[in-house]
Here is the input.
Amino acid sequence: MAVKRKNMLWLQSGGCGGCTLSLIGAEGPDFSSSLESSGIDILLHPTLSEESGSEVIAKLKALMDGEFALDILCLEGAVMAGPNGTGRFHMMTGFDDAPMMQIIAELATLSDYVVAVGSCAAYGGVTAGGLNVTEAQGLAFDADMPGGLLGADFTSKNGLPVINISGCPIHPDWVLETLYQIAADEMTTDDLDQFNRPKALSNKLVHHGCSRNEFYEYKASGEQLGHLGCMMEHLGCKGTQASGDCNTRPWNGAGSCISGGYPCIACTEPGFEEPGHTFVETPKIAGIPTGIPTDMPKAWFVALASLSKAATPDRLRRNAVADHISVSPKSKSKGGRS
Amino acid sequence: MTRLIVGPFNRVEGDLEVKLDIEKGIVTDAHVVSPMYRGFEQILQGKDPRDALVYAPRICGICSVSQSAASAGALAQAQGITDIPLNGQLSRNLIQATENVADHLTHFYLFFMPDFARDVYAGQPWFGPVGERFKALSGTVLPEMLPERAQFMHIMGLMAGKWPHTLSLQPGGSSKSIEAQEKARLSALLGGFRRFLERTLFGDDLDRIGNFQSLDELNAWRADKGPGHSDFTRFLDIADHLGLDEMGSASGRFMSYGAYHLDDRHHFAQGVFVDGKVEPLDTTLISEDVSHAWMQNKEALHPFDGQTMPEWNEDNGYTWCKAPRLGGQVVEVGALARQAVNGHPLIRDAIVQSGGNVRNRILARLLEIALVTCAMEKWTRQLQPKETFCIHAEMPDEARGLGLVEAARGSLGHWLRVKDGQIDNYQIVAPTTWNFSPRDGDGTQGALEQALIGAPVKFGETEPVAVQHIVRSFDPCMVCTVH
Here is the structure.
């Protein structure tokens, strides 16, 4: 039997809107074709819907009154509970002085699926940076601690926890592929990791497919942004620890943070907004980076690193600290066909 | 008198509410409310100055690169960098231009035009093809325009790693060097985009579109082509039918910080356009008034000394938005202001004839799509793949820096003060903070508040469509506004 089409309500709160702007850049197929063909109809989206003002309020109230069912609720942006738990840093027009967090909480209990789009909605994200004056948190996590607005035990009507598609911003495919699975009734708790991220996203590392892989192998490191070498040793790159397929699934057709000449800042990880050090510099103890691959004995890493450093080809040593390839790999001549 | 609260506004970036006083079917007063506060100026305090380049772009998902560029500009000034390599300048311009052009396109097709596909206009003689083409979420233009926008954004993938939220824009240039074949790819991407614009948006050569000298010349061209010729002519036809050139006039003072700096000059000039003349811009005259914002400390301060102390139950406050003023005056910012200051003859003529209004704001935005795309082709040709793209400098322990850029929707400034090697103060004045500011201490309304006065409200309208057009004509970005 064909799966019934699903409606999707999209809300925004403490965020920048960048996840939506990234999402509408989807390709293969484009955003509107993706939803149409996968069986999802947008009920309301703040950036895209015709409805405005009272028309929006009426639709939300009809949902709350149970006039029709809600299949998918997406939140973009953090929940802002401040100041002092009142939620007044984001008030919702048309709901008798209600803070946005109250509207989100009520609608979340009505929806079959609840999806947090982006690191803000999932874990608080950049909105929770600094002293977190806005008391920003995620839907069901506060940084890496279960809880958030809805609480650690929250499940939506179909029994799933909030699905956290982290990233700052999200890659359009991360959201769409999750929605395709939801649309087909094929998303299960088995598909989610300890932070309730789709495993499809989090069982990969940004490091996989990194175009600087050869520099990493030989620990041929860049020293300044723009250098071609590996950015792990000096420039804060967290690609070996951060979830994501950023280097095997290009951004905007051709890019990734690393190909853009700057480090991975682990924007898919809960709490990435406060790394405890400047983003573009690697913290070290006795000259050894503190953030090495998490599932490798440290002594081995150090031993391998010093071995490979000693074996670094001159080509990589020189290219690592250049902003253009200065030495090319040599193809061996076989002296003709014979 | 009746009072009408309009909001939450969809198809603006972020959260917005407008309170209207209405008498005899006309808006007599307006209060513009930004109901969300985000706290970036507080988040940035005490951070390593370099980290501003991570946080600042995340103020906004639609002006992300503009925030990066303003931040990089402030850091560069604080570091004393004055000699950014040509490639670095070109990269910065190209990355900023890509965002600005994409934003103009997104605004036109996704935010602004769908209002004309509303049922309220179903009886209009022009409605048939407009309703079909521009209907929000289902219009025929979507599967046509979205792939073109996505492909155009490949420039970001290539030059900036990704969009939004890149770190490639650095104080001394760009962290991504462009190789010869990448330069060729950029030209190809721009060529593809030009074809879409010429075929679909304008229906004529970009150079022709950028070169109209007057409204008469534009109208003669239109008369020749007919309203169904392109999306541009379709818009101009609707504008005539609905009198969009008589709707939404604000202060008549237009400001631009100057856009696309290259070789010591701006591609679009800096200044203030008032009464037909351009005056030089003096940024020391900028202050932010908080008398009607939910903020403590009621003194108007220059952004270098600015303070951000939210207080939601502050007397007289009705918004999280501060009220920036230039020499105590309200100014309007955006594409119309930019082209007025820069002296584009078509825009100067449009302002002489009807001032700042809904039609002219959209006209200037579309004109810029043509002008900037042509400039991008030129900048791409100037890239020198074997040369340097970035220089680096140390941040002094004590320093200050100002970064001024033009985002798609207007003038954006970052004022940075560094003390003991950390950010001591970081103040951001965003385009929509200028346009959607509340009243100041003198009781003078902000630009949108002024523009809404006189707007018609038809009997029984709860979402007055004229108000929708006026609000969206500014291409507001509320997430920037309430940084």
Observations:
- The first helix of chain B runs from residue 40 to 44.
- The CA atoms of residues 167 and 442 of chain B lie 41 Å apart.
- The radius of gyration of chain B is 22 Å.
